[in-house]
Amino acid sequence: MRVAVVGGGNMGGAIVRGMASGNLIKPDHITVSDINETNLLLFKDFDPAIRTTRSNTEAIENADVVVIAVKPWLVGVVAEEIRKKINYKKQILVSIAAGVDFKALASQFHDEAAIFRIIPNTAIEVLQSVSVVSSYKATQQQEELIKAIFSELGKVFFVPENQLGAFTSLSSCGIAYAFRYIRAAMEGGVEMGIYPSVAKAVILQTLRGAVELLESTGTHPESEIDKVTTPGGITIKGLNEMEAHGFTNAVIKGLKASHSK
Predict the structure, then answer these.
(1) Which of 127, 162, 197 is the last residue of a domain?
(2) Does 261 score more than 60 pLDDT?
(3) Which tens digit of pLDDT belongs to each residue from 137-178?
(4) Which H or E run includes 52?
(5) Which of 251, 5, 255 is nearest to 125 (CA)?
(6) How buried is residue 208: exposed, middle or buried, by Cβ count under 10 Å (0-12/13-18/19+)?
(7) How far apart are CA 153 and CA 156, in angstroms?
(8) Residues in CB range of 206: below 8 A, 6 or more apart
(9) How far is CA 242 from CA 102, 187, 255, in A?
């Protein structure tokens, strides 16, 4: 299995490093192209076996899967360069460019291409991404192959294309919202006299515990909240203060705002 990644920026780089860290694809079967030589050197620092090039057409030669990992406004530019070099009967096309739909991709590349749109998040680098996937003119075998590749990098959810925007808000944008909560909790810890590094460690372990509880029990979050909200206790007072300042409403509005462009 050979994979070409066109674009070695933040997300493309995370995908390359995640794949190279897994077991399904050998690092020397991954080729990444980028116009920035500095980006390419970073891949060599990570794993010398990863193949790098400044030529997009060179990168896609002999690849089974071609991942387009550039900004949405550059997809057309890349397509113009490589679309006639792709063997659409043998090579699978994957785009991670948010907002560039199948209609546009088929027009820019080829109407008979097997195309996947995948929205991962940056945790793909540590094999803990949520990758939301939609497919266009793909066979079941091709869908299973893409699922196998990205399942090694986290969890995969196949959804209709018209739901990709909502899932992008929930996960791809959502990871930033999770980081913002962590930052806010750290600042609260500092105000209470806890060193930032210690506060961060405590918060991360608390979140790990919360995730493990929900995954192992299958319960609704509110059920777990009820277990620690003693009547008249400090937890319910803290929750009520957060809600008084719009905690739940802010989360919902933030998710919907990132979905409503």
Answers:
(1) 162
(2) no
(3) 999 999 999 999 999 999 999 999 999 999 999 999 999 999
(4) strand 51-53
(5) 5
(6) exposed
(7) 9
(8) none
(9) 41, 15, 18
Query: Residue 125 pLDDT more than 90?
Result: no
pLDDT at res. 260 = 63
Distance between CA atoms of residues 31 and 57, nearest Å: 11
Percent composition of the chain: helix, strand, coil (DSSP 3-state, to 5): 60, 15, 30
Give the pair of three-digit tokens for residue 174. Answer: 């959502």
Segments forming the whole domain that contains residue 243: 174-259
Within a 10 A sphere around the Cβ of 87, how many other Cβ atoms? 11
Strand, helix or coil at 224? helix
- Total domain count for the chain? 2
Residue position matching structure tokens 């996960």: 171
Q: Tens digit of pLDDT for each residue in 174-224?
A: 999 999 999 999 999 999 999 999 999 999 999 999 999 999 999 999 999
CB atoms within 10 A of CB 89: 8
Cα 16 from Cα 14, distance rounded (Å): 6
Both 133 and 62 in one domain: the answer is: yes
Identify the CATH number of the domain in which residue 23 sits: 3.40.50.720
Q: Residues 72-92: pLDDT tens digits?
A: 999 999 999 999 999 999 999
Distance CA 182, CA 178 (A): 6
